[in-house]
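queue> pop job 88
queue> type: inverse folding (structure -> sequence)
queue> payload:
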């Protein structure tokens, strides 16, 4: 459903920007593209610094993103900074670079704004007061024009919410025990080795394989069913054996990629991805249509499904033993990136690389964020402000 909100003035517009982003930006450059008088979402990058060349390069990158959006013909840019406006609005050099890049690309500049620590204003308003306008004007505008956006609560800043859920040491020990039992069962059933190293539990003394772990291990006959059932149950309903099974799966690249495609598409998509993975292991080419999903070039995934998958994998990562945490963390990075949360994606990828510096998916996600690569569906937004 598309939401349209009429912005009464610049202060009201600034009160809406956090709702477009889902968080309150800090030390950021935010660009809101427009098609005519309607906004097409919002994009944020870290506030660029450096000399003129660096500023022009950063501005060209973000205006280039605007140019990729169908029907976008105008934009407003906003600098968010902790600097003071007492001696003039900060961010003038950054916004001037944005203006130059927009002019080169034929993008009309609607406004160039700064929100500083103690005031705000427009760089196109020659009569703005010294020190900027009071920040209270933005809050007052929000109160006078309640937002019609149906969004989750706005987070305090762009990095908020990236921490994994807190899980106690005792909870993690339970998962560790369930994982050891699962790996023992898999070794008996199919001779599968442990993932991520570590010593196998000694089975001397006549102790056998746990029947419950054996039953869970047998569910690997149908991995897409494992992934779909877990998504339907949700993180809080998963028992330790099922969490252990997900930890094990997401630590194996082939199965992790099946989960990625499935959660971005459907159960049928998971079946296709599993079949493609098995064929690839036998020497066949991996289908481009499935690879396109992983690179962000496929059809737009369902955001609610991606969000549910992210909540699930965050839960799994929080409980996983450190040696097996990079797989779930890297998948958290991909799901965050697919949802347009590049700051979160970078955080998850970095944590995975701190454990395993050679982790493939984590390296890919870190490079995506570093070069500003976004999924193609990020340029096909639904909600807008006018």
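queue> result:
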């Amino acid at each position: 459903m598309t939401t349209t909100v009429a912005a009464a003035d610049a202060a009201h517009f600034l009160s809406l920007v956090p709702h477009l982003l889902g968080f309150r930006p800090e030390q950021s450059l935010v660009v809101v593209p427009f098609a005519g008088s309607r906004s097409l979402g919002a994009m944020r990058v870290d506030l660029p610094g450096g000399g003129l060349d660096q500023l022009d390069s950063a501005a060209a990158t973000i205006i280039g993103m605007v140019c990729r959006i169908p029907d976008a013909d105008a934009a407003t840019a906003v600098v968010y900074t902790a600097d003071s406006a007492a001696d003039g609005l900060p961010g003038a050099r950054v916004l001037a670079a944005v203006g130059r890049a927009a002019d080169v690309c034929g993008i009309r500049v609607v406004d160039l704004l700064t929100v500083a620590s103690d005031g705000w204003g427009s760089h196109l308003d020659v009569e703005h007061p010294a020190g900027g306008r009071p920040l209270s004007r933005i809050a007052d505008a929000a109160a006078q024009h309640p937002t019609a956006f149906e969004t989750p609560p706005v987070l305090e800043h762009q990095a908020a919410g990236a921490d994994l859920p807190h899980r106690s040491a005792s909870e993690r020990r339970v998962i560790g025990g369930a994982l050891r039992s699962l790996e023992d069962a898999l070794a008996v059933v199919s001779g599968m080795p442990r993932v991520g190293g570590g010593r196998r539990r000694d089975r001397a003394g006549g102790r056998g394989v746990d029947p419950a772990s054996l039953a869970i291990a047998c569910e690997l006959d149908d991995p897409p069913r494992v992934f779909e059932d877990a998504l339907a149950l949700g993180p809080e309903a998963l028992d330790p054996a099922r969490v252990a099974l997900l930890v094990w799966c997401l630590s194996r690249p082939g199965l992790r990629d099946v989960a990625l495609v499935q959660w971005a598409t459907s159960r049928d998509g998971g079946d296709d991805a599993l079949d493609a993975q098995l064929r690839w292991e036998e020497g066949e080419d991996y289908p481009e249509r499935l690879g396109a999903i992983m690179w962000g070039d496929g059809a737009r995934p369902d955001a609610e499904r991606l969000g549910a998958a992210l909540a699930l994998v965050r839960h799994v990562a929080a409980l996983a033993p450190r040696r097996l945490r990079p797989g779930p963390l890297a998948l958290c990075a991909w799901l965050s990136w697919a949802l347009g949360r590049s700051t979160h994606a970078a955080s998850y990828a970095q944590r995975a690389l701190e454990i395993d510096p050679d982790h493939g998916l984590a390296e890919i996600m870190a490079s995506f964020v570093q070069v500003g690569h976004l999924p193609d569906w990020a340029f096909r937004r639904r909600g807008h402000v006018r």
